[in-house]
Amino acid sequence: MVVILVVSIILLVTAFVFLVWSKQIHKKVITQKKKHRIPDGEITYSDLHIPAKALFSKRYRIAGKPDFIVKHNKQYIPVEVKAGSHRNPQKNHVLQLATYCQLLEDTYRTFVPYGVIVYNDADFTIPFDPGLRFELESVIKKMRASLATGDVARNHDDPRRCHVCSMRKFCENRLA
Predict the structure, then answer these.
(1) What is the pLDDT of residue 23?
(2) For the segment 96-117, what is each residue's pLDDT rounded down to a tens digit?
(3) What residue ranges do the domains of the chain occupy?
């Protein structure tokens, strides 16, 4: 009888510890969602604090890791968090987000209606519409052609961008 009582108390204490722990985790998740202004839904993927596995599209032979994937109303939504303040979404960020939309469609075999870009002072919902899909496919083709020919041109005058560019080794016009 005493053994059953001791085991019951241990189980109750353990259950209480797990309850408190799960509440703390839930608070942290809510705090992170607010901090990064993540849309409503379940976060199913995060690459922001702990590196996650890259998504891969066999069809386009591209890979990438969005900052977050949120599942909302049975739809997967990529969320990209960017530093800086912008009145409008930057074109390169929109194409990066479009890539994540395509990767999600190919990975989960489902329609992705839009993605979200979060800047310091504004959020932008970017529809993954036919126009953006066509533009993404066109950019991928141009990039592949540039890689195949070795003809990679710089499209800016910012040495900092050159320093972190993945195309740096192919670019004869790099600034840094």
Answers:
(1) 67
(2) 999 999 999 999 999 999 999 9
(3) 1-35, 41-128
Q: Which DSSP string corresponds to 111-145?
A: ---EEEEE-SS-EEEEE--HHHHHHHHHHHHHHHH
**Identity of residue 56:** F
Give the dihedral of Cα atoms 157, 160, 163, 167; nearest 10 deg.
-50
Of 156 and 133, which is predicted with more confidence? 133
pTM of the model: 0.74
Q: Is domain 41-128 given the CATH code 3.90.320.10 in the classification?
A: yes
Residues 6+ apart with CB under 8 A from 87: 122
DSSP 173: T
* Number of CB atoms found within 10 A of residue 35's CB: 10
Phi, then psi, of 126 in degrees rounded to 5: -110, 110
